[in-house]
Write a structure and sequence with these properties.
The chain has a single domain, classed as Glycerol-3-phosphate (1)-acyltransferase. It has a 6-stranded mixed sheet, sandwiched between helices. Strands 4-5 form a two-stranded parallel ribbon. With 297 residues, it is α/β, with parallel strands linked by helices.
Amino acid sequence: MRRLLTGLTVTLLLLLNTLTLIGPLLLIALGKFLLPGQALKAASSRGVMWLAETWAELNKLIFASLLPTQWDIRGSAELRQTTSYLVISNHQSWVDIPALIQAFNRKTPYFKFFLKQQLIWVPLLGLAFWALDYPFMKRYSKAFLAKHPQLKGQDLAITKRACEKFKALPVTVVNYLEGTRFTPAKHAQQGSPYSYLLKPKAGGVAFVLAALGEQVDAVLDVTVVYPSTRIPGFWDLISGQVPRVIVDIQTRELDPALWQGDYQNDPVFRQFVQNWVTQLWQDKDARIAQIRAEIET
C-alpha cells in the first residue's frame, strides 16, 4: 500500500508540474515563429530552455522529497552550460531519462533527444517536445527502403535540419547508440559480443557529427548502472523501489576527423567511425564490469 500511495503521489505532482509549465512554455515557443529578428527568436529559445530546466529541477525536488533513491553521479564537476556536448549513453530503462536529468540539468545546456515520430502524439509531452525543437525521426527498414529507394537518406536530412536549429545556442545532444532499451532477450537474439550492452549503431552519431561538426566541444560518455538484480522500470522509481542509480560520466575529446568524411558513400570513412564506436563500446562494457565489481565488494 505504501508503494502505491508513493507512486500515485509522485505521479500527481509530476503531472501538476507539467500542466503548470506547459502553457507558458508553448506561449514563449510561439515567439520563435512570430517575433521578428534573430535576436528575439534566440531570446524565445532561451526562455523555452529556462522553463524546461525549471520543470526538470522541480521534478528533481519531487524525487528528493518523496523517494529514497540515491543518485550517485560521478565525473560531472567540470561540466559547463556554455559548451555544446554530445552525450553517448547505454540505454536500459525509462529511468535512464530521470538519471540524465539528475546528472546534467543546469550543468550543461538542456539536452535534445532524437525521438520516434509517433511520440509527437503523446498528450502534453508531444507539444513540449515540439516546442523544445526535438527532432522527430521516421525510421525505415532495409526492406522498406529497397521498395522505396527515394526515401533513402531522409534520416540524415532530418538530422541536418534539426542540427541547424541547434547552432544558435549551446546544446547537449543525446544519442543512444543501441537504438533500443537493453533486455536479456534482445542481447541473446543479437548475439551481442558485449556482456552488458547491445550492439551499437554508428550511423546516428555519424550524422550528428556531420551536421554539428566543430560546434561539439566534447563527448560525454555516460554509463548508467543499476546495482539491483534487475533493471527497474519507471513505476519502480516513482513508487520508491529504486535505492540507487549510478551515473558515470567520462569526458572524451573529439577527433575532428570524425566529421570530415562522407559516412554514407565513403566505405573507408564509415569503417573509421565504426571502429571508433566499437572501441567506445568495448570501453563502456569494461567500465560497467568494473563498477559492478566495486558494488559487489
